Amino acid sequence: MTRVIHTGDTHIGYQQYHSPVRRQDFLDAFESVIRDAIDDDVDAVVHAGDLFHDRRPDLPDLLGTISALRRLERADVPFLAVVGNHESTRDGQWLDLFERLGLATRLGEEPVVVGNTAFYGLDHVPVSRRDELEYAYEPHDAEYAALVAHGLFEPFAHADWDTETVLTRSTVAFDALLLGDNHKPDRAKVAGTWVTYPGSTERASASEREGRGYNLVTFGGNEAGDEERVDIRRRALETREFVFITVELHEGEGESRARDEVRAHDLTDAVALVEIVGDGETVTPAAIEEVAEDEGALIARVTDRRDIDTESEFDVSFADPEAAVRERIDSMGLSEAARSIDETVRDAAVADSNVRPAVNDRIAELIDDPGAFTPAVDEDETAGDGETEREDEAERQDETEREDEAERQDETEREDEAERQDETEREEEAEREDETEREDETEREDETDGDLGDRESDHGGEPTPRDQQVSMEDYL
Question: Has 183 been annotated as catalytic?
Fold first, then answer.
């Protein structure tokens, strides 16, 4: 019998909501998995990709990961892994470095036998290159076999990889596919083979409402006489609490009702995600977020899902955008200096590289004239009782609040969209950056006549952080 922890999508280094605390949470979750592996004396930890959130992890995240893997190595528990799309580079992988350090084994076409089970690996492969795959794996003599892979496989959500194709074309008969990439834990049988995701170890988006955890997989059954060849059980991880609050506002209800609903929850050290629905009055998200933070929330985000009718009507024309800009500038009551700076910045005759010097010169010309910095005043407006001015100020404040509200509403959607685009963007970025790195390396080789020893001595054998980020070339 062989017992392994199947985990993945740890995304170490992800600074969710721009919070350093949330960044540490992702490393803490990975360390919890390692701690459980040691305490339970499992035969191996199998990681199905996206160990890091980025292909250039920051130095503290890298050192924290190495420290955790060293503890696992001292406990004589092997760490078997594949490369995911978030951390993938075209050449050397961080997993290769860990393997050189004796801290990990990168799975591939040759079997790595642990107990009675042979483990194989399939790194993330872009859709455009999957037709080239041969699924040719070396034979094994073990009782069981498992393929560890990173991708979106059928029959699970967002699938773009045919699982039956992998199973039927592979030269090895697999008893289980241990997968990563889909953050939702799930499992199913495909052509008689167990296919399973452990889910992410921390919530990487607001859509991941279920608790986080990993799989404990046993090859050979979990009990004597068990007919099931592969036993898969889910274990929970204690991670930072997310509190999801839905506030339904009925007609006549507004911010006061939303405040009371938020205060009814224990938000101590939690991430509070508040959703406003219903037909009630307009609510300012910033005010509700402040209430949640006062109740002890680490982070608070408010999203108003309603279509709010506004009294203002906007007449937008794209026929003459310059005229629209001029009209808006005229209505702002800017000072002479401000108008002059605006004209300088928008002047097509001024090159982008010369904008800053041109603005400095213009300010220097006006600095001795205090009147140039006095806001313009409408004579008709000053003749009144000031009511119009107060109304305009209120309108500007309302506009600012609406913009802030819209920005907060879109934040979660932008994060989810960014997550979906990550794969394509990172692959393109990796290709461009690695090409540049190869060209730079070639230039360095030419400059030193291929003297590898000189190049290594430049770094003194130690990693060189750049803005606390490190790349593979610093190590390999």
Answer: no
